[in-house]
Amino acid sequence: MQLDFHYYATYCAAFLAGYCHEDALQIAYSAQFADNCTRTFLARIQAPEAAATTQLTMEMADANLNKAGIADITRIWASFHFLPYDLYADVQRGNRDFRNKYRLICRNNGALVADTVNLAKGKTLQAVGVAMHVLADTWAHANFAGTPSMMMNDTNYHFYEYIQKNGEWTRRKVQFGLGSGENLEFGKYINTISTKTEKSIMSLGHGQAGHLPDYSCMRYVYMPSWGRYEEIYKDNPSDYWHAFCQMIYAMKYLHGEVETFELNHYDFEAAAPYEDEIKAIFEKRQLDDSADWKALGEKISGCEIEDFSTEKYVTEYTDAPSEAKNETFLGKYFQAATAHKIMVTEKIIASGNTLAGKSLDYVKKGRRIRIKFGLPGRRSDNENT
Questions:
Q1: SS3 sequence of 310-360
Q2: Are 150 and 225 contacting, i.e. CB atoms less than 8 angstroms apart?
Q3: How many CB atoms lie within 10 A of CB 157?
Q4: Can you say whether the dihedral through the CA atoms of 244, 102, 115, 310 is positive or negative?
Q5: Residue 112 CB partners (closer than 8 Å, separation 6+)
Q6: How many CB atoms lie within 10 A of CB 110?
Q7: Tens-binned pLDDT, residue by residue, of the chain (385 aa)
Q8: Are 36 and 7 in contact (CB under 8 A)?
Q9: FRET label pair with 173: which of 43, 152, 182, 297, CA 20 to 30 Å apart?
Q10: Which alpha helices (DSSP H) does 194-313 contain, by range?
Q11: 41 — phi, psi (to 5°)?
Q12: Which helix H or strand E contains 30, and what residues bound it?
């Protein structure tokens, strides 16, 4: 998913869940910020690098794809963007490496989704936003894994999108390639370079499928190698609708309106007054739904939704004295993100899967969490060694 859903749609879901305008904005900012909080950003503002929730292309290009490098990448992408569905899946084929990678495949309504939401219970608005980013991505990023792997994430020539032509649904072959733009009208999209190397950064997540999983209007089929090249159908409008209604339900739980959080539950009733408008946004053939979601959000709340800016809370953080940084917006976000990364990483390690490393060594010092997993081979001044 991208800014249109993580920021504007999350705001709408938060408001419908009972949060006030200002709280909904903070949740939405935190949800989107998971796609912006890179080590480059953290280094610039002198914040703990262990709180990184995503990576720039240039950061991944510099990554060493040895065991430590793979673990570092997996901890970020599996934690925040491709939450594993079943770490204990009964895989009756392949070697141990294949089974470990297969168990990192992302899908919605896995046990870790419940763990993610429950971890945010009673915590900050930033923790709620982090949880909503992760939950939403389990719908958009289903069937891909947050670790570099051609076996899990490769696509081939058999990739078609469904489009309406003269009132009838028809399949059209997707044209992937490199370039500076995408064209919905002609079905031309950008993806990462195909490679025959198993451990390639080009085969991380849905890179081989381009941004098609991130566009709410897309319906497509493809044949993943992990699925024995059987065709998989992905219906983004339906999945995005379920993601939106599950976010409302989850945030009602986090807000105290619902006593328990259960998987496969959706608050369709809260979204019902706006269902036609929401589904119309999902169906609209465009690459960015931000303007439509912004308009709907302002209609729902009656308040202006400011544009997202990565820099919004930077000055507050950088100007705060060391002992007060954890009380700033970004300080609270870094703690929430770090806690979530620790939880997911520990779950992966506990399952016997070594792709996220073999151990997680961290300590809590005062009110600041310092962790011993940063960029492999590099020491951060904010990490305890």
A1: CCCCHHHHHHCCHHHHHHCHHHHHHHHHHHHHHHHHHHHHHCCCCCCCCCC
A2: yes
A3: 9
A4: negative
A5: 83, 84, 85, 87, 344, 347
A6: 19
A7: 999 999 999 999 999 999 999 999 999 999 999 999 999 999 999 999 999 999 988 888 888 889 989 999 999 999 999 999 999 999 988 899 999 999 999 999 999 999 999 999 999 999 999 999 999 999 999 999 999 999 999 888 899 999 998 889 999 999 988 776 888 988 899 988 877 788 888 889 888 888 999 999 999 999 998 988 889 999 999 999 999 999 999 999 999 999 999 999 999 999 999 999 999 999 999 999 999 999 999 999 999 999 999 999 999 999 999 999 999 999 999 999 999 999 999 999 999 999 999 876 543 333 334 443 333 333 333 332 2
A8: no
A9: 152
A10: 236-255, 268-271, 275-283, 290-301
A11: -65, -45
A12: helix 21-33
Task: State the helix-helix crossing angle for 21-33 and 125-140, rounded to 10 degrees.
Answer: 50
Contact 177, 188 (CB under 8 A): yes
Beta strands in the chain (DSSP E): 159-165, 168-173, 175-177, 188-190, 219-222, 232-235, 362-365, 368-371
Nearest Cα to Cα of residue 335 among 39, 120, 14, 41: 120
Angle at 70 between CA 64 and CA 73, to 5 degrees: 95
pTM: 0.92
Closest Cα to residue 155, out of 205, 199, 219, 217? 205
* Helix (H/G/I), strand (E/B), else coil: 106: strand
* Contact yes or no for 314/50 (Cβ under 8 A): no
For tokens 């490199």, the residue is: 178
Question: Which residue reads 């310092």 in tokens?
Answer: 370
* Cα 279 to Cα 289: distance, rounded to the nearest angstrom: 12
**If you count them, how many residues does the chain have?**
385
